[in-house]
Design goal:
alpha/beta; Arc Repressor Mutant, subunit A; Rossmann fold; 4 domains; six-stranded mixed β-sheet; three-stranded antiparallel β-sheet; 23 helices; globular; disordered C terminus
Length: about 550
Amino acid sequence: MYRQQQEFNALMNEPGKKRNIMKILLCGYGGNGKTTLKHALQRSFIEAKLLQRSKEKAPSSEKEEYEPTPGIDMATVNISKAGKFGIWDFAGQTEYYVTHNMFLSAENSIFTVVFKITDTPEKQKSEVISWLSFIKAIIMKTIAKGQFKPTVILVASRADQLKKGTRKKADALYREIQLEAKKMFGEYLNILDETFILNCHDSQHRDMNRLRTCIKLAKREEFVPKICEEIRGEKPGWIVSTFPVIKWNSYVQKVKAMKAPADEEEIGSIGDEEPLKRVTKFLQYLGEILYIESTLTRGGDIIVLDPQWLCTRVIGPMLAPETFVKYTKRLTKKMIYSRSDIEVVFQDFADIDSLIDLLKELELVFEVAEQTPGGTVISDPENVSYYSIGQIKKAEQKNKQVLDKRKTKSEEVSDLLCRGYDAEVLRSLGYQSDVKWMLQSTRKQFSIIMDRRRNYGGDYRMMADLMGFERAEVASWEENYSKQSITQHILSEWSKRWAMRNQDDGILSEADCIYESTFTNLVKILRHKDCCVDIARKR
């Protein structure tokens, strides 16, 4: 391990070209003006004057034809008065959110959340809080609390559409949203105090220049390691088809065969390739490639040499809603797709099998298959049962099976959902869902808090007592599960016992034990006077 660290340090410490490594990540719902803001930031004074001559005034947002961004638009641009920055424009349509977490990164990024100042106060607050929650969830996967706080700028668009005399009211509302956001996310995000209520078409307004100044102050130039610059320069020559994706083994060979490597001994010292993997992840961090660690496909990990291609040519038509007229060929909404469905959308791709492998790795498609003596066969869609979220919700709450009336068969909810991972279903069921569907990350953090014994009783012992467990049972579990999380075991037992009771009305008075194993009752237990109020509030 020490040798690998030395090799990595040797590869990364040889300075190459000095570059600004900061990225501006434009976030917000569709139609809020992110792309317009991106163009305005780039526009110089002369360009703005030329545009003004062609138009009598800056166009109103309502008059301009709206063309939504498909997936993510990545570009390195020159921001007037600030310099070169990478700007990543994230599509605001919810269909694309599933892929955003692959590209949202906390380090060296400025998150710019754009919302419309002309929307209702409730909608403005909801959109900002929703996106900040999403950003927080993403960054929590890569950084520890308190390690550093990524910068967030809130931008309210459509200032040109405010009614006369309402600007002060809009300023007050912006400040209210800003303060609420800082209160909710201040521990994790550095939300700037500056106020930006902009007409995103007016590139030379003083408020737009203030935004440029804030961006310029965040600029961070560093020497990018020479090997990264070498790979970046050779990369275009590695793309030999309309499918700029290669397997890891091929990538390693291409790096080793580079005409002018940083140092032949250093390249040759990669050995088990671990240092090169870390270099590759650094290139991904810069947005130059996408490195996918494979768990499914043959031939090892996958390198996407052109991330923009992936966003616009693959993710774009794969997830495009019907309102996206740009894509005349896209996947229609249905549960199961055949190979021919994918071939119609991606008919200019010569290697459909490799594309399907890539989609599997990105978890955009899953193979519905049956094992037979002759191998794996894609199931006939007619033999597959379909259940709505509503059906699953009803069955889960009543502790019954889900019925497929068309096929006159029923299935257990536990056979349909993946315990600890079904976030979408959990959000739909809300607090009435069973604690057995608690996300793994939440269960782990909750257990860390509750497993620690406290003299005043605000731990797993009091929680179990309020759930109706005997203290002798808890003592037995403490002895038998000393090397495991006792809190996780209690939650599992609580869920099992409620299932066995088979009662519809399990919520009793607050003075009694609460038996039904729902999130609602878990919150009630944590707020009980004998438990710990602070934990309930934090969770």
